[in-house]
Amino acid sequence: MAAPENAAVVVDDLRVRRGETEVLRGLSFTVPTGAVTGLLGPSGCGKTTLIRSIVGVQQLGSGSITVLGAPGGSASLRARIGYVTQSPSVYGDLTVRQNVRYFGAVYGVSAAAADAAVADVGLTEHSGRLVDKLSGGQQARVSLACALVGKPELLVLDEPTVGLDPVLRRDLWQHFAELAAGGATLLVSSHVMDEADRCDRLLLMREGRLLADQTPGELRAETGTANLEEAFLELVLASTRAPESETTGAQ
């Protein structure tokens, strides 16, 4: 597929298999630069496999992925992408501050900038605590701070708000919007449809297929529904009635 000039990620006819199961079934879409794109769908629909494919840690069956102008998985992309997995990927025997400063040093970032990343995820008062002593939600925030500290051009977040209280979820989404306004590109996965309205663009998945690639407003207009959860249900119903090639929003 031809890549738009403002595309940070271009996925073309991507297929991934695990054994006899086709996990991703011919996905094609782009992720625009300087925007928050939400990747939404129920657990088990293929979101994590797609994210792993984009960051270059998943073996592809067929198709292609271009990230920031380079083939997905290229060594040149490592310092340009921030990736936060569902499970915290930090050192439990170090404090919050030590973890983020360590990753900051890898990126050549100052200690002050690392401390600012800790503050951005609301962990300043816990910065001296060992990560092993934190709750699961707090550990996830440490992982996020470690990804933010290098100021990546592309930030890929797999379910970053799971287990967080509503106030912190709101604050993080506000910070995501500020990052995008500053030119960063964010791809954020979630299975919580009330987070969809916080995104500039939505990729809705079900059973390894792309049901929609639209803005929230376009999705409401397309389905004639008032909220995005109802819109997603309408797309699911439409996909069960129509042939694959006619699925709403598929490319």
Present the secondary structure layout.
Blueprint: E1 7-18, E2 21-32, E3 36-40, H1 47-55, E4 62-67, E5 70-71, E6 81-84, H2 96-106, H3 111-120, H4 136-148, E7 154-158, H5 166-181, E8 185-190, E9 201-206, E10 209-214, H6 216-223, H7 228-241
Helix pairs in contact: 2-3, 2-4, 3-4, 6-7
Write a concise synopsis of the structure shown.
Helices cover 32% and strands 25% of the residues. The chain is α/β, with parallel strands linked by helices and 251 residues long.
Please characterize this protein's 3D structure:
With 251 residues, this protein is of the alpha/beta class. It is built from 7 helices and 10 strands. A 6-stranded mixed β-sheet has the order 6-7-8-3-9-10, with helices on both faces. Strands 2-1-4-5 form a 4-stranded antiparallel β-sheet, with helices on one face. Helix 3 crosses helix 4. The chain is globular, with a radius of gyration of 18 Å. Residues 245-251 have low confidence and may be disordered.
